[in-house]
Write a structure and sequence with these properties.
The protein is built from nine helices and ten strands. By secondary structure, the chain is α/β, with parallel strands linked by helices. It folds into two domains: 148 residues, HUPs (Rossmann fold, 3-Layer(aba) Sandwich), CATH 3.40.50.620; 104 residues, 3-Layer(aba) Sandwich (Rossmann fold), CATH 3.40.50.620. A ten-stranded mixed sheet has the order 3-2-1-4-5-10-9-6-7-8, with helices on both faces. It is elongated and about 65 Å long.
């Protein structure tokens, strides 16, 4: 892991996530790219080209001044944690958030996106959405969504990895094992039983147990009518510090299921959620 992207709107929620970005940058000896994306003004026609350019230039100038002020605050936080190691690089862009994030990820070879996420419920969840949930659904890079309640007070010791024991799940687990080793964490593989489980699910679980017998991994195969709530209960009961899951895209219905689940977890979990891409 060499480059960590930290998109921010300089809110309290984003600042909580910045602590995680700093810790991961320290552990993995990575650089942090601070990205702020601002909305471009909507200029209704008829407007002279020169007038439109002047509007955009004014907005860009104001954003640059604000960006410089906020960057200084982040640099002070970084110096308190690891002054001699962590390097911050800064990018200011105007436009769509998810598009800009994907563009920076491609240009800068980003390995991890760290973002703050704000919970929502009921009608707010349906209609307002969440920037982080949208990025999780559309980004081409692994995303760590950090709730504002999850400020980094202690070491990450326990990670739960939700799995359906599919081939691509194994690829994501390989990545997670490497991360867990670096941060000194244990992994719990959690499978929630359902009617669509393949007939050889027990055989697959035993294969994983043998494959990872030398790693700090425990395996849980439990029943639950409501997947999201079952995961949340597991988090609380097992004192989980981070949730990891893979956003599947094998089929249309699987894609819908996992997109919905990862969004809900981003909203409702009080611990960070790490979402891998297939």
């Amino acid at each position: 892991m060499k480059n960590i992207l930290f998109p921010t709107d300089f809110s309290e929620t984003a600042n909580a996530a910045f602590t995680y970005a700093l810790k991961f940058a320290d552990i993995f000896e990575a650089d942090i790219i601070v990205l702020h994306v601002y909305s471009l003004p909507i200029v209704e026609p008829p407007v002279l080209p020169g007038a439109a350019k002047e509007v955009f230039d004014i907005v860009a100038h104001n954003q640059e001044e604000k960006f410089e002020e906020e960057i200084k605050k982040l640099e002070k936080i970084a110096k308190k944690i690891k002054p001699e190691r962590i390097k911050l690089r800064n990018i200011l862009m105007g436009g769509d958030l998810t598009y800009s994030i994907n563009e920076v990820c491609n240009d800068e070879n980003v390995d991890l996106i760290v973002m703050g996420t704000t919970g929502a419920s009921g009608i707010k969840e349906i209609f307002l959405g969440s920037n982080t949930a949208t990025v999780i659904a559309n980004a081409k890079t692994t995303v760590l969504g950090v709730p504002v309640e999850a400020e980094f007070h202690h070491q990450i010791k326990n990670i739960v990895f939700t799995t359906q024991y599919k081939e691509e799940d194994g690829e994501a687990l390989e990545q997670l094992v490497e991360i867990a080793k670096r941060i000194g964490a244990n992994i719990s593989c959690l499978h929630i039983k359902n009617d669509d489980d393949p007939s050889d699910i027990d055989e697959k679980i035993n294969e994983w147990k043998m494959l990872y017998k030398n790693e700090n991994i425990d395996f849980f195969n439990i029943s639950g009518d409501h997947i999201e709530q079952t995961i949340l209960d597991f988090i609380e009961n097992q004192q989980i510090d981070m949730v990891a899951m893979l956003k599947h895209k094998r089929s249309f219905f699987e894609s819908l299921f996992h997109r919905s689940l990862t969004k809900k977890m981003a909203y409702h979990s009080k611990v960070p959620i790490l979402v891998f891409k297939c």
